[in-house]
Amino acid sequence: xxxxxxxxxxxxxxxxxxxxxxxxxxxxxxxxxxxxxxxxxxxxxxxxxxxxxxxxxxxxxxxxxxxxxxxxxxxxxxxxxxxxxxxxxxxxxxxxxxxxxxxxxxxxxxxxxxxxxxxxxxxxxxxxxxxxxxxxxxxxxxxxxxxxxxxxxxxxxxxxxxxxxxxxxxxxxxxxxxxxxxxxxxxxxxxxxxxxxxxxxxxxxxxxxxxxxxxxxxxxxxxxxxxxxxxxxxxxxxxxxxxxxxxxxxxxxxxxxxxxxxxxxxxxxxxxxxxxxxxxxxxxxxxxxxxxxxxxxxxxxxxxxxxxxxxxxxxxxxxxxxxxxxxxxxxxxxxxxxxxxxxxxxxxxxxxxxxxxxxxxxxxxxxxxxxxxxxxxxxxxxxxxxxxxxxxxxxxxxxxxxxxxxxxxxxxxxxxxxxxxxxxxxxxxxxxxxxxxxx
Length: 439
Prior knowledge:
- The structure is a single chain.
- This protein is of the alpha/beta class.
- The chain contains 14 helices and 18 strands.
- Helix 8 packs parallel to helix 9.
- It is globular.
């Protein structure tokens, strides 16, 4: 039996792609590893990211490391797939010919065939989970139609294509049957879901159906584009207890001048009104956002307005990225990258400094509260858990001392918060938590 090591780089959407590929390879009779660094596999498949400069570098470095392993006879064959390969296949073939083959983002059947297997359409909803067994990402669409000025995703992944609802629900049921309790609903823009298949946005309907699946306790919504945000999504989030009071909604900027330059298709006033509606209709909602600084033409006045936005809104979770020019995008072809790299980094650091204080104050306000948490792992002297306000890998954690009682991974507990730091909470278990259906 051949052993295949699938290495996944980049975002959670790549994770889902790798998991579907691994299901096909498992059905073809291969033994599988994921992200292994043991160099004991016969074949290595690298699922790359090509979104920004740092991600491209990581992908190239990983490919070169695998090439060295192949030259040393540690692996037999090497395949590269994903965003970097989709975008730069010709250049990669010229510069790194040691790779046996390069595949794009939709060439999964070709990869299986190249490895001697047959892609099976009936396995379309099957996956080999690479996340902890109690949570999974659920990708509901591919591509994007928004064409933001800085973003290469439409160039790589193409236009928005929704996954049929019946396929998504079947995949979610299979995950629930395997013990998954939390679903992270993801796409390049989740709010656009359904418009190409059904003639209207159907995210609210999809979320309602997901809530009916037995065994699923938490449903978390990521990557919601702020323009034309569907009102019925707010209503279903407020109504359904399984849907976490959490929303990942990347605003990127708040200055009207910068929003226009970025081609974001909404104004500052519309963004502020959306935030007010969300907080009015879903009390205690945790809002996560990402911001982009140093975009061409960004002035000190623009960054001051962005800083004030962060202070006023007081996001629960926030990430900042310095602008990176991506060839083929509007900003790379039509605008001048006129903010020095050192200044981009300074602006990003300044916003994160503001957010650090906000996060500390938000956390201190939760001391004494009882929160329902899920245990993810044990690290050292603590169990690591999360509340509905935190997504895995990107948000903060709740640390529970191990000596107090034995806890089980993937289980829910009611925890009293006893302490707070800027990006972590501490707590003690009161009791196991009941399921959503019985609460």
